[in-house]
Fold:
Amino acid sequence: MSYRDTSFGSSHPSVLNSFSSSLRSRPFADISYTSTPDVNEVYPGLFVGDAVAAKDKAFLKRMSINYVLNTAEGKRFTQVDTDHLYYRDCPGMRYKGFQLMDLPSTDISKYFYIAANFIEEALSSGGRVLVHCLMGVSRSATCALAFLMIKRRMSLTEALATVRARRDIHPNEGFLRQLQQLDRELRVSRVR
Structure:
């Protein structure tokens, strides 16, 4: 019988050895992975995007983006490892970072007015601002929505419609609750 045992018995080490030697014979430099920036202009001068966009200084320069708001600053999983020093070789670049995790329990609301003021500073000076997180769908989108509500006097529904017309966003349920609270507070303050 010419049956060869392919179970994980005695042949296991040779299978691993042949696999690892085939990896060694092909240099990893041949593997090309290109990731392109995922960015959308959701309001004139306001861009929401991902970490790839934020880390691509040449892209930012081509897009004339001179303000960057990192809503996921840090070195932990799902955070983006950039800070003001990352952009030190970009003349005129303004940077702000929030160390936020994309969790429903995260209190993002304490940054709503800081984000809105930073974005407003960019736009009122004729600048262009990138608000980003890792994927550009939850933390960054939430801060962009807060800006539209605070500085452009939109309701949450109007802000969501404005941004979603240009980008697929999905703020987590905790962030949506905090935006709903902001919406209520803004409505009450505007009645006074």
User: Anything to note?
Assistant: The first helix runs from residue 12 to 25. The helical segments are 12-25, 51-55, 57-62, 112-124, 139-151, 156-164, 173-191.
